[in-house]
Design brief:
Length: 186
């Protein structure tokens, strides 16, 4: 599947700015990991882009709608990874792609949440600040901290290094993601 087709699918289901940004951030991190791990950046990026595609339109059927669509298009590797991107669903992690998507989803959203409460946004954000916020249960309370830890474990990466990699990946796209430093008042 080409990125343009994945984008069309995403936009056919998802309209909300926040969820579209989440899809894009996970896509960016997945592409970066694919390059780092000598995997297929197109496959990994599109998997990140589409992992929550049906969430807004079909929240009670998520991720079954997008998984079924991908299976109909013979995109089984993507479909399986998306069906496994939350450990409580009980789907096994068979491939590096499956593990990477779990490892990148929740924590990427959490890094974005951390950036959004800072005037400097992503600029100067460090893993230690993100880790400190992870310990604060009231901050971004919907983020499942166990998923963050399990994902890093399954991907076999140190959580601090993982968060640093995500921050650096997103910093390169801060303007596009509307996560660049806010202008200071003169």
């Amino acid at each position: 599947m080409q990125r343009e087709e994945a984008l069309q699918i995403l936009h056919s289901y998802t309209k909300g700015e926040s969820l579209l940004r989440h899809a894009r951030t996970v896509e960016l991190v997945m592409r970066a990991y694919a390059q780092k791990l000598n995997q297929d950046p197109e496959l990994w990026g599109n998997t990140g882009l589409l992992h929550d595609a049906d969430y807004e339109a079909h929240p009670h059927q998520h991720p079954n709608v997008i998984v079924q669509l991908l299976r109909e298009q013979s995109e089984e590797e993507m479909a399986h990874a998306i069906s496994a991107h939350y450990s409580h669903w009980g789907v096994p992690y068979n491939t590096l792609l499956d593990k990477a998507l779990l490892a990148c989803d929740e924590v990427t959203g959490f890094v974005v949440a951390c950036a959004q409460v800072r005037p400097q946004r992503l600029e100067g954000l460090e893993a230690k600040s993100v880790l400190k916020k992870l310990k604060q249960a009231s901050f971004a309370a919907s983020v499942d901290r166990n998923e963050v830890r399990l994902g890093a474990e399954l991907l076999n990466v140190d959580l601090t290094e993982h968060i640093t990699f995500i921050i650096e990946t997103l910093q390169a796209h801060a303007e596009e993601l509307n996560l660049a430093a806010l202008p200071q008042n003169a």
